[in-house]
Amino acid sequence: MMNLSAGKNTVTFKSFGIELVGNLYLPEGFDENKKYKAIVGASPFPQVKEQVLGTYGPEMAKRGFVFLGFDYLGMGDSPSLPGEFKQSRYMFRLIENTWDAVSYLGTLPFVEEIMGLGVCQGGSIMASAAVTDHRIKKLATVSGMMAADAFQWTDKTVVNQMIAGANHSKQKIYETGAPDYVAPFGLTDDQSREEYIELAGTPMAGESYDYYGKDGIKGPKAVENFTNMHIGDQAMESLISISEHYADKIAQPTLVVYGKDAPTAICSTGFIDKLTNEHEVLAVSGFGHVDFYHHPDAVKVSTDAVAEFFNK
């Protein structure tokens, strides 16, 4: 076994026959002869492991947990499959990558129990993975895009335009054998804040730019292996929200944390309404969707709540 120590350790594990790259965060005073609760993390779209998972990993390790944050197939430091291209993040593969991350944690002799924590799209990924992976003993979602149909599909005209663009991109990639990169939310790596807010025209534009924009807290300058540009067929899978339609099948105890004033609150409340398992809810005033990615006060609220829930 590799040499592991308290803090951040670079690790790899196999998924789809290739080595995915992760950061394994271990608590202070880590002793490989002791037993720890471990958490596998799932990140928001379109993130790499140095963003939200790089914030939550150290926080959960500080609270005594082993935490695995990793780059999905084709993202960040993880390679794409032969003949495929980087910056391709597909829902069904994300679920399988998560199952393999759980398998990897299960090989570590100091791990006694595995939990799942997902933020934004990561909530949907983790909940979907957990439906048939009961090795995941408890779930927590933060700002989760859980019951996303009402959020994503409200304007069918816009959605069908996105689908048409994605279908065109898929065909183009197949025929040319070359990647077709787009900015899924209209945000490129070069725009100014003013340009993006005017273009996006959504309530979340400012907070999104401050995180992902050119000079953002976790934008392309701050995070070397991150870009806002992605393979153009993305919408063909990101518009399918599996966890919403399997919510009543989730057996594991679940914690749902969200900002009650955030535009995405409906994605958590709609999911909560469909849960039939033992679950707890923490709806917080005063924080937006993206605040739970990085704002110290919001992150403290969510990580304290997750630690308490996972320790019960």
UniProtKB/TrEMBL annotation:
GO molecular function terms attached to this record: hydrolase activity
Keyword Nucleotide-binding found: no
Keyword entries, A-Z: Hydrolase
SUPFAM superfamilies: alpha/beta-Hydrolases
Gene3D superfamilies with a match to the protein in the record: 1.10.10.800, alpha/beta hydrolase
Hydrolase keyword on record: yes
InterPro entries the record matches: AB_hydrolase_fold, Polyketide_trans_af380
Protein name per its UniProtKB record: Alpha/beta hydrolase
